[in-house]
Write a structure and sequence with these properties.
This protein is of the alpha+beta class. The protein folds into 2 domains: about 280 residues, TIM Barrel (Alpha-Beta Barrel); about 130 residues, 2-Layer Sandwich (Alpha-Beta Plaits). Helix content is about 25%, strand content about 20%. It is elongated. About 20% of the residues have low confidence. Pathway: Cofactor biosynthesis; molybdopterin biosynthesis.
Length: about 550
């Protein structure tokens, strides 16, 4: 716990039991077979037993685990075991009661030890003990922790000290895996390494004759990003595809806005498709803004075995490593990871330009080919006029005396209105490379700009004074890298059923996305040009359709 504590999340912002189960059901349906409830502290939720029981009913879910501080474990474990809890991790950084109180900011050491023994008595084996090792605090207790495994079926997991907000991380405080291993081998030279399980985050060792074993989580000194298959959902409903990444996507907001299962899968798939090859490294992570650890792993979803990847091109630099088999997909609906590697889905596909450089491409829609109203930036076909657009002989947003006035659309018929607009952001070579490689310190510029474009479309009537509020049925934002110009080409498509057009929504979407790109990149370069904001097409109005050639 950070010394200054952490702000409590308002109850209304937390996922409800129903929302947790809805998301869990969605992930399990797509092949996830292990769910771990973590924290913060999951056992303070009054509905935690009910959540475990209902998760246990999900067909295909093999394991339900919990990571807890252990203080309430002895009291709740019999109920949790009956509900279906299959695995237990207990966070414990010291075996000295006074030091425990200093680290955790509360009493309770003896309750934790009671919880560990209760888990053993109820047949859990191994009971995992998570110990974060910090120089000057508890590295002198390594041998004491290992000694526990002589007579108890424990897996003591030594975790390298990792940088998070509020924990005052310093490289000098980190005790590396190799240093810890050397210390243990001096005491137990017979220490032997066990085979690593696929997608395991731990390097496991055993002392011959001991009931338990020990493991090392080497996130900093020897990362395991290439085989990581974990996804995390925070208690307030944000999806994190990397523990050390600051990027989050709110699934809660989409759920509460009525998103369909298909739409949620597109959002999740896009986030997973953006997962980087590896984290930024301990020194860069220490400079990044991220939640305190106590606020991150509030609800963790993982697969014991990674999902299947359709055919991967050997030249593809952007596929998510480690996601290889197990997850099944319903066809043809795009799902969690489908399309991240398949070229027919442009949501995330590398493209070769004339210069031979790789191009990142991001779309909020899973497959532009299925949406005829949306002009794909990947297409080389030119749009054509469907006929001349009749124009008014006067400005429609002024009255007879020249004062600003909103147009009365009450008498117009409701028709399907579709508009597409585009914008271009010239980044320059330095900023372009950072965006292309997703290395900006602020985060993933393309994802943030795409979300901003969608938000901008929805808020157009609040930004443009005389625009009517339009209930949009669909917004799509695509961003494509153009390495020949060191530019990002943005395309926004809006659709609605109503008496007024949506071209302002499309134009606002493209403009806001381009402004967001500028904001994401301005620390790198101020020589960024926003331009070419224009309407590409407009259909459904009384004055005819428009298509720019």
């Amino acid at each position: 716990m950070p010394e200054e504590g952490v702000p409590l999340t308002p109850k209304a912002d937390l996922l409800t039991t129903k929302e947790i189960l809805t998301l869990a059901r969605l992930f399990v349906k797509e092949g996830v077979d292990k769910i771990r409830l973590t924290g913060g502290e999951p056992l303070i939720r009054p509905d935690v037993v009910d959540i475990v029981a209902q998760l246990h009913q999900l067909q295909g879910l093999r394991t339900i685990g919990v990571t807890t501080n252990g203080i309430n474990l002895a009291r709740l474990l019999p109920q949790l075991q009956k509900a279906g809890l299959g695995a237990i991790n207990i966070s414990l950084d010291t075996l000295i009661p006074a030091k425990f109180e200093f680290i955790v900011r509360r009493k309770g050491f003896h309750k934790v030890m009671e919880g560990i023994h209760k888990a053993i008595d109820l047949g859990y084996s191994p009971v995992k003990i998570n110990c974060v090792v910090m120089r000057g605090l508890n590295e002198d207790e390594l041998l004491d922790f290992v000694a526990l495994t002589e007579g108890l079926p424990l897996d003591v997991r030594f975790i390298e000290y990792m940088p998070f907000d509020g924990n005052k991380w310093n490289f000098k405080k980190m005790v590396s895996y190799k240093e810890m291993l050397d210390t243990l081998q001096q005491q137990w030279p017979e220490l032997e390494k066990l085979p690593e399980e696929e997608s395991s985050t731990a390097k496991t060792f055993k002392i011959p004759g001991f009931r338990g074993h020990i493991s090392f989580i080497t996130s900093m000194s020897e990362h395991f990003c290439g085989t990581c298959n974990r996804l995390r959902i925070t208690a307030d409903g944000n999806l994190k595809v990397c523990l050390f990444g600051s990027s989050e996507v709110s699934l809660r907001d989409h759920l509460r806005a009525g998103a369909s299962e298909e739409e949620l899968l597109r959002i999740i798939g896009a986030a997973v498709g953006r997962k980087k090859r590896q984290h930024a490294g301990m020194f860069n992570i220490s400079q990044m803004k991220n939640r305190p650890m106590i606020l991150i792993e509030l609800f963790l979803i993982l697969q014991d075995s990674p999902p299947a990847i359709p055919s991967i091109s050997s030249r593809d630099p952007v596929h998510v490593q480690g996601l290889r088999h197990r997850v099944r997909f319903s066809n043809p609906m795009p799902t969690l990871w489908k399309g991240c590697w398949v070229s027919k889905s442009p949501r995330l596909a590398p493209q070769r330009l004339g210069s031979g450089s790789l191009q990142r491409h991001y779309s909020s829609h899973p497959d532009t080919d299925t949406n005829p109203e949306c002009l794909s930036p990947m297409s080389q076909a030119r749009a054509t006029h469907s006929g001349p657009l009749p124009t008014s002989d006067r400005l429609t947003h002024v009255d007879t005396e020249g004062r600003a006035a909103m147009v009365d659309v009450g008498g117009k018929p409701d028709t399907e209105r579709v508009a597409v607009a585009s914008a271009t952001v010239l980044l320059g070579p330095v900023a372009f490379k950072l965006v292309q490689e997703n290395q900006l310190k602020k985060g993933d510029a393309l994802v943030v700009a795409q979300l901003a474009g969608i938000q901008g479309a929805k808020l157009t009537s609040q930004l443009i004074p005389l625009c009517h509020h339009v209930a949009l049925s669909h917004v799509q934002v695509q961003l494509q890298l153009d390495s020949t110009r060191h530019a990002v080409v943005i395309q926004a498509s809006c659709r609605a059923q109503g008496p007024t057009g949506v071209e302002m929504e499309a134009l606002t979407s493209a403009a806001v996305a381009s402004l967001t790109l500028y904001d994401m990149c301005k620390a790198v370069s101020r020589d960024i040009v926003l331009g070419e904001i224009k309407l590409i097409s407009k259909t459904g109005g009384q004055r005819g359709d428009f298509h720019r050639t």
